[in-house]
From TrEMBL:
Protein known as: B-block binding subunit of TFIIIC domain-containing protein
Feature: compositional bias, Acidic residues: 344-356
Region (Disordered): 344-364
Subcellular location, record wording: Nucleus
Residue stretches making up the B-block binding subunit of TFIIIC domain: 173-247
Molecular functions per Gene Ontology: DNA binding
PANTHER family given in the database record: GENERAL TRANSCRIPTION FACTOR 3C POLYPEPTIDE 1 (PTHR15180:SF1)
Annotated GO CC locations: nucleus; transcription factor TFIIIC complex
GO biological process per UniProt: 5S class rRNA transcription by RNA polymerase III; transcription initiation at RNA polymerase III promoter
InterPro entries on file: Tfc3-like, TFIIIC_Bblock-bd, WH_GTF3C1
Boundaries of every General transcription factor 3C polypeptide 1 winged-helix domain copy: 5-61
Keyword terms of this UniProt record: DNA-binding, Nucleus, Phosphoprotein, Transcription
Gene source species: Oncorhynchus kisutch
Length: 427
């Protein structure tokens, strides 16, 4: 990637909040892959001129200075053997508090705490012909950490969805802000638990629905993440990353267990001696012992004793001086290793295929919403019109043209007021 394209990429990834001059240098210095130029004063001035001359970048003055971005590597505290992150005692300073911009008429989406308060100083920094009016040194002396550079909506959306994304895709304001937050985290990603507890301060179930549209449109990836707290307890969460920043992170023993399972599946009778397996894996005896103990605990293998001549018939009969058979400790594969996937507990009606929702949406005719009547009255009228056979929740939401969450809340409220009875039926 061209160095100037890299700079624009970093500015766009910061989102609607924009990036200060000093934070941009921090991002470029810590960038992965490494920024291909030395960030001396001449290079910084050249980068500044390129940003000023770019019509996709606007400049704003914040009402107060913004703290420099603090980059923390969450993977530095991960145990390479177990893949579990040790809880570190550091104060997380969030330079980008969440303030969602809702239903902007100009089509701008994102999170910006000073969106209405900040002042556009682009006409001061450049002319209408994109000629710089202010040098980097003068700009920093005048505005300091109050000056932020913000990429256009088109450019910010493009870096989030990637080259293969659909530019015409429409996301809700909340889902877009989650995507923006995940993109700003780059290779570190965001834990879903941190998003709903700290950043967005919302219910975990709501966060699940907001995030679901991003996974359905293949914009982000998910992988399990385990954090060991100071008390020793393990805290499980989901790590969200943009597709372009996805890295398949697995522990050493996770990889060894998969390799061992593959070796045993190809061995005769799915059985092989421990010495042979250890030599093929090229690992120490201590590591091998811990690895097969993990597999035993997961009920993937069992330890068996086999005569050597059964393992390798070419060696012929092998007897000891006492006349007993020479035996070897072996591992026998009980069931093949399956990689762990991120699985979330969802309600039965979350899956389109569970209650025939996909088919019902195609076969059930929709009914226009009657805006003078409330949803509860309309839903109750539809249920009554279906008689004693009733109607499935998926068919109800298809006829009313509403979402799953709305239909579920309507049914629960009607059931709570004893207006309907809900039954689970086989389809």
């Amino acid at each position: 990637m061209d160095p100037l394209d890299i700079v624009m990429d970093e500015v766009a990834l910061e989102g609607l909040d924009g990036v200060t001059i000093l934070s941009l240098w921090i991002r470029l210095e810590k960038r992965n892959p490494v920024f291909p130029r030395n960030l001396d004063s001449c290079t910084k001035e050249f980068i500044w001129k390129s940003l000023v001359s770019n019509h996709e970048v606007d400049f704003y003055e914040l009402p107060q200075e913004r703290a420099d971005v603090v980059l923390v590597d969450r993977f530095a505290d991960i145990d390479p053997d177990t893949g579990i992150q040790e809880a570190s005692h550091w104060d997380r300073v969030d330079s980008y508090p969440v303030q969602i911009l809702l239903e902007d008429k100009s089509g701008i989406q994102g999170s910006c705490v000073f969106f209405k308060e900040r002042r556009n100083v682009t006409p001061i920094i450049r002319t209408t012909k994109l000629t710089p009016c202010v040098t980097l040194e003068d700009a920093f002396k005048r505005w300091g950490r109050k000056l932020v550079m913000v990429a256009s909506q088109r450019l910010r959306f493009r870096v989030l969805i990637g080259d293969g994304g659909d530019p015409d895709l429409k996301l809700t304001d909340h889902s877009y802000c989650i995507l923006e937050r995940v993109g700003r985290a780059r290779w570190q990603g965001e834990l879903q638990r941190d998003l709903h507890c700290c950043s967005f301060k919302t219910d975990a179930r709501k966060m699940h629905y907001l995030r679901k549209s991003l996974t359905q449109n293949d914009l982000i990836t998910m992988q399990s993440h385990v954090l060991r707290l100071a008390s020793g307890a393990q805290q499980h969460s989901i790590l969200l990353l943009l597709k372009r920043f996805h890295v398949d992170r697995r522990s050493k023993y996770d990889i060894l267990m998969e390799l061992t399972s593959n070796l045993l599946s190809e061995a005769p009778n799915h059985t092989a001696s421990m010495i042979t397996l250890r030599d093929q894996l090229s690992i120490s005896e201590r590591t091998f012992k811990r690895m097969y103990q993990y597999m035993q605990a997961a009920k993937l293998v069992q330890v068996v004793i086999k005569p050597v001549e059964h393992l390798n018939p070419t060696v012929g009969p092998c007897d000891t001086r006492r006349g007993t058979k020479v035996v070897a400790r072996c591992l026998k594969l009980i069931k093949p290793y399956v990689r762990k996937e991120v699985v979330e507990a969802e309600d039965d009606d979350d899956n389109d295929d569970d209650d025939g929702g996909g088919a019902n949406r195609k076969t059930v005719p929709t009914e226009g919403r009657i805006m003078e009547r409330d949803f509860l009255s309309q839903a109750y009228g539809i249920i009554v019109s279906c008689g004693t056979k009733g109607i499935s929740q998926s068919a109800l939401r298809a006829r009313m043209c509403i979402g799953k969450l709305e239909s579920r809340m309507i049914c629960r409220l009607l059931e709570r007021t004893d207006m309907i009875k809900v039954k689970v039926c086989d389809v």
